[in-house]
Amino acid sequence: MKRKLSSIFRIGMEGRFQSKGAEADGNNGEQITMNSKRPTMTLNVNGLWDVVPRLDHYRLSRRAKRPSLAELHEGNPAKDLMNAATLEAGLPMGGHNASGQAAAKKHVGIKLGWIQGVLIPCLLNIWGVMLFLRLSWVVAQAGILHTCIIIGISAFVCVITTLSLSAISTNGEVKGGGIYFIISRSLGPEFGASVGIVFAFANAVAASMNTIGFCDSLNQLLHEHGLKIIDNGFHDVQIVGIVAILVMVLICAIGMEWESKAQNFLIAIIVGAIVDFLIGALIGPRSLQDRAGGFTGFNSTVFMDNWLPDYRYSEGANQTFFSVFAIFFPSVTGIQAGANISGDLKDPASSIPVGTLLALLMSMISYVTFVFFAGGAAIRDASGEILNGTIAMCDPFSKDGCKSGLHNSYSMMQLMSVWGPFIYAGCFAATLSTALTNLISVPRLIQALGQDRIYPGLIYFSKGYGKSGEPYRGYVLTFFVAALFVLIANLNAVAPLISNFYLASYALINFCTFHAALVRPLGWRPTFKYYNTWLSLLGFIACVAIMFLIDWVTSLVTFVIIFALYLIVVYRKPDVNWGSSTQAQTYKTALSIAYRLNSIDEHVKNYCPQILALSGAPNARPALLHLANLITKNNSLLICGEIYPSRMSYRVRSAHLRQGYAWLQRHRIKSFYHVVEELSLEKGASAMMQTSGVGKLAPNVVLMGYKTHWSSCSYKELQEYFNVLHNAFDHRLAVAILRIAEGLDCSSVGSTGSAEDEQHSGALVQSSYDLAGNTLMHADSDLSMSGRGIARVQSVPSIGTQFIPPDATAPIRDSPTHWSARDHLKNKKRHLAEKMLMNNKQNGLSVVPEYLTIFQKKHKNGIIDVWWLYDDGGLTILLPYIISTRTNWEHCKMRIFALANHKQDIGAQEKEMAEIMAKFRIKYTSLKMVDDISVQPKQETQDFFDKVISEFRKNDASDNAECVVTDAELQSLRDKTFRQLRLRELLLENSSQSTMVVMSLPMPRKGALSAPLYMAWLEALTRDMPPTLLIRGNHSSVLTFYS
Questions:
Q1: Pseudo-torsion of CA 338, 339, 342, 348, nearest 10°?
Q2: Is the pLDDT of residue 738 over 60?
Q3: Average pLDDT of the chain to the nearest whole number
Q4: Which of 805, 827, 853 is the C-terminal boundary of a domain?
Q5: Of 104, 124, 157, which closes a domain?
Q6: C-alpha dihedral over 279, 280, 284, 290, to 10 degrees?
Q7: Angle separating helix axes 939-948 and 974-990, nearest 10 degrees
Q8: 3-state DSSP assignment of residue 975
Q9: Are 363 and 202 in contact (CB under 8 A)?
Q10: Where is average pLDDT lowest: 607-616, 724-733, 793-802, 990-999?
Q11: CA-to-CA distance for 756 and 763, rounded, in angstroms?
Q12: Residues 104/339, Cβ–Cβ less than 8 Å
């Protein structure tokens, strides 16, 4: 073994990237030869394994895994030896054996090339019902000139769309789902899913339209031979159409191989029919009956007569250019056929552009050729009858009208051909092949939507069967939708609707390319270069304009449907990350605005409190974050800061951040989450104050929780907490301290004594709190709720955070309170959340304390008392005003208390304060001037204070001089201390029953005030009080009365 390892090491030092791939020779059983099919590796001088670039490392499946940065940087000697032995044994790295590789290479269905997978499906989709049944009628209505313009506009839209489609489809691997996959991965699931549904519906209806065309042609053929099923009309179309749809769905469900064989046969018949018509038109009429039907042969007079349009009343409406365009346009909507089955292509990136462009070129040439042949060799109106050996004349505007000619007969192509039955065969092949292509794409598109779990209702239809994963349930759904529209049995009734849906899809394809090319994220690297950003924008505008010119009502309906589907996805917020261009646009927009904001001078009118909340892990002090969210929601920046005392590995840190953001998202708190490591509270808080934020998007308020157990903690902890305040003021930041009588840290609530019980009960209370938040949790990609992270949120240690032991997760998940997505949609009312909390209690779970949800509850008759004692720039009055505007607090009364100078007239001071409040346009219920602040506090209040500081009056703490309250300090600050004690008496007298108290924070004079004395002041102001928020601004104005 030693010899083998030394051999491998020598090879690695020589820089040869080799792997064992051949039999050893007779002289040396250790020779390693080159083999590109194995993951080639080298052993560097540190004994760590590196791998050369390999395609499998970049696949989503991650069948092969490169060494992590931690493995290379930190090393793992035992694993290095194992890797060496693995390489010597000829096995691939990463633990993949032969069976694993065989499973990775399992059969995934038949793959098609660009001819069979793109060119032929596109031609079959384009050469549809309109070619054989409506193009002659279009020539009669629009004339040769306008018909060429219609074809030109259609070609213009389709060419631009094809270029856009080609650019997107060559920007990475395209999987199953076609148009949906392309748009969703480019613009995001909101656009992709909505257009995917519309496009699937359009394809299903297009299959119905082509089937109706087949039935019409069959009826005409039966009529010529005096045959019928029921009435040779409406009911025959319905019966034959449903049977035809059923047969075609079965052909599609059999698999791609049978469908491909059917397509080859059908395309041959279509091409033969086209050639049959062209030869027949060149030969000219072969009988008097042909002339009577309107077939004159090529004639300059006929050509000129048919050159200009002749729009008439037809198909139940007065025809115009755009009404005729709407009927013709579905005949060019086959360019997406290859993209629809992109998952079945060998190389979608190259097949889609080549096959689609070539199919479009061939079809447009054939259409223009047909127009010139039909317009130059047939007249618009003919009687179709022979009287006494001569052609009977007819008046198209008479009561009887004309029965033949381009205007009146849909069978002119059959009349002008060499052999008429071949045209019927071509018509049958064209209509059925187009319907077949549409029917293939719809189930696969539905399958892609269902597999992405965008719309829950489609998941059932996305299940795949067999080796190739055929969506048989999707085929059943497609059959019923297509059969429903076949029952309409009117070709022209569905064509305009299809045109709008296809144009909407094409518009978004062009917009996708335009948006991606404009934003140009680093991932935008299409191999197809023949596209243009502004040409794609022009294509988008053209599609939308044509939609409304065709039928503005149908266009509005189309956009309303797309918008409704879009809103559904926005509401559900699927947990997907596809790297769409909208994500790149969001980043670039945010970056641009951040740069722009940095150059904008600050103004008091635009002041926003940007809060750095020193909360620890988000779920540790939820009340603190909910208060911060009340202030910053939809207005300003909130950063949740946690200081971690020890070092975390990258994996643990990533999990910690992910869990923190998951908690914030579940509770709908818009906040950033910032974690610093290996720092004390003082240094960590200082680091956050200096580094949090970007440019002007940086905190200007530090929000902290009150240190409830300050009198019993270590002197070092107390001094660090006190120094955080000094650091904040040193950085010219405002400070706010929140105290709730029961404390803010919910992780230790409900403990029964032992560490294990405390840990378990804290987790249960936290889980109950998550449920009591009554938040709207969105569905992840697997349809379970984000609330499923309840058990994992606390899987990483943090300050003040308890853990959920493995055996504690089961009762939470199995309890009646575990919400699924469907349960949540049915249980939005608050009383149901309360019922679930009662279920928690019955199951032995701790009921969440009321004080933890005080900032989430609705307070109908609450009172907010604001003690604006010192002018700090107005922040002390601004923050409670913001809170009072929130939905849950808007019915609370706001009372203002302000200090008065007893040497001046109290009435005048009250009037002045009222004028200030009026100038600042802040509504309040009452205003009270406090004029007895200088009165000496009662003896019992002084005794209370003496008891509070008694632990810090001892002389045995000489080694912690900063945490000792000396007689000299008490004497020098006697008046200020008495003021705080007198304020306590006034607070208890006026605000002890209020819902919330907001008060000016005493200023800790640097170097003149010790930490225990200052904390004793705060204790005096906040003990036995409702939730109290102490605020001290940075003494810059945050309010103004100027406009």
A1: 80
A2: yes
A3: 78
A4: 853
A5: 104
A6: 180
A7: 110
A8: helix
A9: no
A10: 793-802
A11: 11
A12: no
User: Same structural domain for residues 299 and 264?
Assistant: yes
Q: Is residue 599 part of a domain?
A: no
Give the 3-state secondary structure of residue 752.
coil
Residue 1028 sits at φ, ψ, to 5 deg, of -125, 135
**How many alpha carbons fall within 13 Å on the CB side of residue 679?**
14
Residue at token pair 């019980």: 757
DSSP at 847: P
Are 999 and 1030 in contact by the 8 Å Cβ rule? The answer is yes
The Cα–Cα gap between 852 and 860 comes to: 18
Beta strands in 800-940 (DSSP E): 863-868, 893-899, 926-930
Q: What domain range is 12 assigned to?
A: 2-104
Q: Are residues 643 and 527 in the same domain?
A: no
3-state SS of 434-460 is: HHHHHHHHHHHHHHHHHHCCCCHHHCH
Q: Nearest Cα to 161, choosing from 693, 538, 675? A: 538
- 846 and 886 share a domain? no
Contact by Cβ (8 Å): 161, 509: yes
What would the two tokens of residue 122 be? 């596109």
Q: pLDDT per residue over 851-907, tens digit each?
A: 678 888 888 889 999 999 998 889 999 999 999 999 899 889 999 999 888 778 888
Same domain, residue pair 9 and 27: yes
- Residue 705, strand partner residues: 738
Q: What span, in angstroms and rounded, lies between the C-alpha atoms of 303 and 306? A: 5
Task: Detail the DSSP E strand segments found in 69-138.
Answer: none
Q: Hey, how many other C-beta atoms are within 10 angstroms of the C-beta on 832?
A: 13
> How many angstroms separate the CA atoms of 736 and 725, rounded?
10
pLDDT tens string 544-556: 999 999 888 888 9
Reply yes or no on whether the pLDDT at 710 is more than 50: yes
Contact 1011, 719 (CB under 8 A): yes
357 φ, ψ (degrees, to nearest 5): -65, -40
Residue 264 is part of a domain; what is its CATH number? 1.20.1740.10
**Residue 223 and residue 231: Cα distance in Å, rounded?**
10
Residues 236 and 203 in one domain: yes
- Tokens for 110, please give them: 């038949």
- Give a yes or no: residue 586 inside a domain: no
| Pairing state between β 41-43 and 49-51 | antiparallel
CATH code where residue 901 lies: 3.40.50
In terms of Cα–Cα distance, which of 864, 892, 890 is closest to 877?
Answer: 864
How high is the pLDDT of residue 71?
Answer: 67
Number of domains in the chain: 4
d(CA 1002, CA 1013): 12
Residue among 109, 234, 116 at smallest CA distance from 175: 109
CB 217, CB 431: distance < 8 Å: yes
Residue in 543, 501, 492 with CA at minimum distance from that of residue 319: 492
The answer as to whether 580 is a domain residue is no
Query: Quick one: pLDDT at residue 839?
Result: 52
Number of DSSP helices (H) and strands (E) in the chain, helices first: 38, 16
Q: Are residues 494 and 641 in the same domain?
A: no
Q: Is 278 helix (H, G, I), strand (E, B) or coil?
A: helix
Going by their DSSP bridges, the two strands 701-705 and 672-677 should be labelled as unpaired
Beta-strand (E) ranges in 962-1002? 996-1000
- Packing angle between helix 179-187 and helix 491-519, nearest 10 degrees? 40
φ, ψ for residue 899 (rounded to 5)? -80, 145
Query: Structure tokens of 82?
Result: 């194992």
Determine, yes or no, domain membership for 602.
no
> Rounded to whole angstroms, what are the CA distances from 219 to 129, 212, 214, 226, 621?
14, 10, 9, 10, 76
What is the value of pTM for the model shown?
A: 0.68
Q: Which residues of 124-137 are buried (b: 16+ CB within 10 A; e: fewer)?
A: bbbbbbbbbbbbbb
Residues 393 and 175 sit within 8 Å (Cβ to Cβ): no
For 33-67, the pLDDT digits (tens) are: 334 444 444 444 444 466 777 666 656 555 566 77
Phi/psi region, residue 708 (left: phi>0; alpha: psi -120 to 50; beta: rest), is: alpha
